[in-house]
Design brief:
This protein is mainly α. It is 70% helix and 0% strand. The protein is elongated, with a radius of gyration of 16 Å.
């Protein structure tokens, strides 16, 4: 099995992931919402956020480490719920963690199947556009 090519801009991709993570934390710990806060939307937004985070960080993770990435995402989700229990405006909800797990599983599954190469594809597209 051959090694995958290295990313040209790993710091850019890691920084983007950190910013996305910070946005998820901010959204989870504040009362500000951009959408109508329904239970269905809340669970869907948890699943979507953790799907995006898992796929994003999968670009920086070797395929053999995707299980560790999924576990790290789960710990992150649980930590957010614990942090919510210390706020005056939010509360912890085990069903939020279930929604996180759904997003993590979908993201890790698609990453396993090849979506983890998204950053390489992006770099190739940018490289072709710049070389024209």
């Amino acid at each position: 099995m051959s090694a995958e090519p290295a990313l040209r801009w790993p710091l850019l991709w890691a920084s983007g992931g950190i910013l996305l993570s910070a946005y998820v934390i901010y959204g989870a710990l504040t009362r500000i919402t951009l959408f109508v806060p329904t239970t269905i939307w809340d669970k869907a937004s948890h699943a979507l956020a953790f799907f995006v985070l898992t796929v994003w960080f999968s670009a920086l993770t070797p395929r053999r480490r995707l299980l560790q990435l999924a576990l790290a995402m789960l710990v992150f989700g649980i930590a957010i719920e614990v942090a919510q229990s210390f706020t005056a405006t939010r509360q912890a909800d085990v069903l939020d963690v279930v929604a996180d797990v759904i997003g993590i599983a979908a993201g890790a599954g698609l990453a396993w199947l090849g979506l983890r190469r998204w950053a390489l594809w992006a770099e190739r597209i940018v490289g072709r556009a710049v070389s024209r």
